[in-house]
Design brief:
Elements (H helix, E strand, L loop, with lengths): L3 E12 L2 E12 L3 E5 L6 H9 L6 E6 L2 E2 L5 H6 L2 E4 L11 H8 L8 H11 L1 H5 L10 H14 L4 E5 L7 H17 L3 E6 L10 E6 L2 E7 L5 H8 L5
Bound molecules: adenosine-5'-diphosphate and magnesium ion.
The site of adenosine-5'-diphosphate (ADP) has 11 residues, from strand 2 and helix 1.
């Protein structure tokens, strides 16, 4: 069996008196693509942000590559290879595309840096075309691609991607998802993405259903019917 690179046990995160996620246990295997699905307000973003460290859980254990990380800073988690790509893509807005990648690649081994940047450009040729453009002037979809390119450049081991399909044209969603699958196939990365778009079924190995902060299912994709997922947990079908 594959190694669990990420393991969350009994995680509870509150905003004031609201429990956004309630005693959630979750894991991701080496080279797995896990889709976290659920309606608006289910707690998807809160779960990803709690894992990445941008919000602090009230209770629970988070293990990453064998380390207990729940009290680590975002930066320390990032340095070990855990990267969140939020809905508002995490880029350096005032730098060029090229500079964004060059700054990020510093987290990677020196002898791999050039290759990683070339790979990011190969995955997203538009980033190469726009390499001199200031990142904040890219479209939303291009910024999302750059954020994934930054994950590639910094050699992230696990990429947590929050609803990547939002704001992307349907054709672009399919392409973007295919690229994520290629990244998983080409590299040792694990990808955890939250989604409300049914197309997540095309790439996920396993789906984790959340509703009102609680787990509704955790199943390998082949054990779930498309209709069941669509009816219960997925709002947009574009
Ligand atoms: N900063 C916040 N302050 C207060 N409540 C929040 C905050 N962020 C999220 N929530 C609440 O937590 C719950 C889960 O939200 P969220 O994690 O954003 O869900 P999802 O990403 O699945 O839409 C919702 O009830 C939401 O209103
Ligand atoms: Mg969300």
């Amino acid at each position: 069996m594959s190694e669990q690179v990420l393991k969350v046990t009994d995680l509870t995160t509150c905003y004031g008196s609201i429990s956004a996620i309630k005693s959630i246990s979750f894991y991701a295997l080496d080279r797995e693509i896990v889709g976290i699905v659920g309606p608006n307000g289910a707690g998807k973003t809160t779960l990803l942000e709690s894992i990445a460290g941008s919000v602090q859980p009230l209770e629970g254990i988070i293990e990453f590559l064998g380390h207990r990380i729940e009290h680590w800073s975002v930066l320390k988690r990032r340095q070990l290879g855990l990267m969140l790509i939020p809905q508002e893509a995490n880029i350096f807005p005032m730098m060029s595309v090229k500079k964004n990648l060059e700054v990020s690649v510093i987290l990677s081994d020196r002898d791999k840096r050039e290759e990683l940047i070339s790979y990011a450009y190969e995955l997203f040729p538009i980033l190469y075309e726009r390499r001199k453009q200031i990142a904040s002037t890219l479209s939303g979809g291009q910024q999302r691609m750059l954020a994934v390119g930054i994950g590639i450049a910094s050699n992230a081991r696990v990429m947590l991607i929050d609803e990547p399909s939002i704001g992307l044209a349907p054709k672009l969603v399919t392409k973007f998802f295919e690229t994520l699958k290629k990244i998983r196939d080409d590299t040792k990365k694990t990808i955890v993405l939250s989604e409300q778009n049914i197309k997540v079924l095309n790439i996920a190995d396993r789906l984790f259903g959340l509703e009102a902060g609680e787990i509704r299912f955790d199943e390998r994709k082949e054990n779930l019917s498309r209709d069941a997922v669509k009816d219960l947990y997925l709002g947009s079908i574009s």
